[in-house]
Amino acid sequence: MLDAAVDVSDGAASTGPLPTSVDLESLKALAHPLRVRILHVLTTRGPQTASSLAAALGESTGSTSYHLRQLEAKGYIAEDVDRGTARERWWRRSIDEVEVWTKELAEAPEGRAASATVLGAWTAHDSALLTAFVVGGEDRYDEPTLDAARVSSRSASLTPAQLRTLTRDVEALIRERLAEAEAAPAAEGATAHRIQIQFHAFPID
């Protein structure tokens, strides 16, 4: 069984709530390519309007507005009232990580299909961000930022128990470090970038 979580936090995650399991109807509501793309942008770039999402995704404002309402209805997003104006509504993610592939969801073919759609689209968007960094990072970021970033992969032979320990330990460490970063003020003169954290560990034999 593939135990997979999609991070729909805004990057300011803490050691707080663990991944949330969604029911089949909620997952099916998310399993639309444009809704996954919208949720991914809200996660990686922070709050957006229907217009800014339309520009980022190459869609019409009417289309993004419709799908934003569908995501709101299932609790994935909420209006950011602190940013909203009389002319335009802002939207933010409203839940933390989501378990998109669980034993319960996989028991039904439509559950497996919905999980595959969401997870496949999400990882594709993550990969696109990584590719953009690899291709253009040298021209876009300063040396301290490039030195701090890390693109790496390793191969190893692990039992399922060892692999589970590894992945959960890494996820816990990421939450801990993000919580520390959120609590600590940035050093004077330091520039904070939006950071995409990707961790992959899977069997290849």
Account of the 3D structure:
This protein has 205 residues and is mainly α. The protein has one domain: Orthogonal Bundle (Arc Repressor Mutant, subunit A). The protein has 8 helices and 6 strands; from the N terminus they run E-E-H-H-E-H-H-E-E-E-H-H-H-H. Helix 2 (33-45) crosses helix 4 and helix 2 (33-45) packs across helix 6 (109-140). The protein is globular, with a radius of gyration of 18 Å.
- What's the number of domains? 1
Q: How much of the polypeptide forms β-strand, as a percent range?
A: 5-15%
Major sheet: arrangement of strands: 1-6-2
Kindly name the structural category.
mainly alpha
Q: What is the H-and-E element order? A: EEHHEHHEEEHHHH
Characterize the main sheet.
Answer: 3 strands, mixed
Q: CATH superfamily, please? A: Winged helix-like DNA-binding domain superfamily/Winged helix DNA-binding domain
Q: Please bin the fraction of helical residues.
A: 40-55%
Query: What is the CATH topology?
Result: Arc Repressor Mutant, subunit A
Q: Per the principal axes of the C-alpha atoms, what is the gross shape?
A: globular
Instruction: Report the span from N to C terminus.
Output: 16 Å
Known CATH architecture: Orthogonal Bundle
**Radius of gyration, rounded?**
18 Å
The total strand number stands at: 6
Query: Which CATH class applies here?
Result: Mainly Alpha
Q: Indicate the low-confidence ranges by residue numbers.
A: 8-17
Mean pLDDT: 85
